[in-house]
């Protein structure tokens, strides 16, 4: 019996569900990654990922670890759906007349998927970073204030600038407020700040991830016609995601710095990708380009492992199979 081809709507549902499940599981680590990438060497607020998460919970509460999660959960559905469905679409069209895709064509399909997803990824990351980084900026100001207050006496307080005072709370700002302000001041291009850096990150990531996952997953297939077990797909997704994430980590640091609109007075401003890259290397050293690389690997590995399992389980096929409408392709 010939297996019925899966329609695009089913692929989109699978990608969307996969993205939501994955993001919910790993978002706190993603918040730590953003804050670690944005802090400068001369203003260390967090020592590592665990220190960042502990300080976040203490100062902002448990839900402080999920600042910006609503944006991700809203936009990750179309983002992951586009990414996974576009890769399948390009692989299908590039494989016409061939039983097996060459590595070059697999990389080509991956690059096409990476280019398609930035339509959603760039504004999603732009808004998420503003919300995630707000707590770091407040913590940085408080680190400068508290030592002076602890010294005691009027002399210590008077020696501070007039802007200093009791530790400031994290200012609550919504994604909608940020969006309105960006549209008012910069138009639609305001939401696409850092587009070049996002392309530099996402295209190489997809070029590495999708072919690597396909080959690792194929090793777990009992035979050519059968699918790999779900645990093998999970492990293949985790491995491929981890390796691709670390490989493009410098581009992710540059993208995060460019998309951070709120900066302290001592933090550098950047005019573009090359300016950001050169200033980071010159002022903080080459190692700064790998800030948050461990966190990013911990985010991407389970995210794509979960995504691939949900995708291959076929949630979309199940839902559409129960639908009274005929949404499957011929």
From TrEMBL:
Location in the cell: Mitochondrion inner membrane
GO BP of this protein: malate-aspartate shuttle
Pfam families attached to this UniProt entry: Mito_carr
UniProt-recorded Gene Ontology molecular function terms: L-aspartate transmembrane transporter activity; L-glutamate transmembrane transporter activity; symporter activity
Source taxon at top rank: Eukaryota
Transmembrane residue ranges: 12-32, 297-320
Record's keyword terms, sorted: Membrane, Mitochondrion, Mitochondrion inner membrane, Phosphoprotein, Repeat, Symport, Transmembrane, Transmembrane helix, Transport
InterPro entries linked to this entry: MCP, MCP_dom_sf, MCP_transmembrane, Mito_Solute_Carrier
PROSITE patterns attached to this UniProt entry: SOLCAR
Swiss-Prot/TrEMBL Solcar repeat ranges: 6-93, 101-219, 228-317
Key word Transmembrane present: yes
Membrane topology of this protein: Multi-pass membrane protein
Catalytic activity: L-glutamate(in) + H(+)(in) = L-glutamate(out) + H(+)(out)
Gene Ontology CC: one annotated term: mitochondrial inner membrane
Role according to the record: Responsible for the transport of glutamate from the cytosol into the mitochondrial matrix with the concomitant import of a proton (symport system).
Assigned protein family: Belongs to the mitochondrial carrier (TC 2.A.29) family.
Protein name listed in UniProt: Mitochondrial glutamate carrier 2
